[in-house]
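Sanity check

After download, print the first record. It should look like this:
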Amino acid sequence: QLQLVESGGGLVQPGGSLRLSCAASGFTLDSYAVGWFRQAPGKEREGVSCISGSDSNFEHTDSVKGRFSISRDNAKNTVYLQMNNLKPEDTAVYYCAARPGSRCPPNAMDYWGKGTLVTVSS
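Expected structure tokens:
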């Protein structure tokens, strides 16, 4: 069965850090672009970060630049999202998704995880 499973979410205070993991089973991620997306209550889903499958180039949405980083460990078949200096507006359900190639168009990802909740609150 092909699936992605996110983990690492939780409650954190403003200024804190979390590392989210996206583990794949049933296929190998090394040739896939993997994106992190989030959806806050009452808001549309937005792309957060994407790492290319071909050369591990990455991109981040402007609101998280300098605070979030994305990386992959092909040996563990896992992609990570390191989130530092978290803000209340980062509160959302975070999803990872994958598709072959180098880009992460939100409407064209092949596989999606079920999400992990990140809550940033004091």
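If your output differs, re-run the checksum step. Summary of this record's structure: The longest strand covers residues 92-100.
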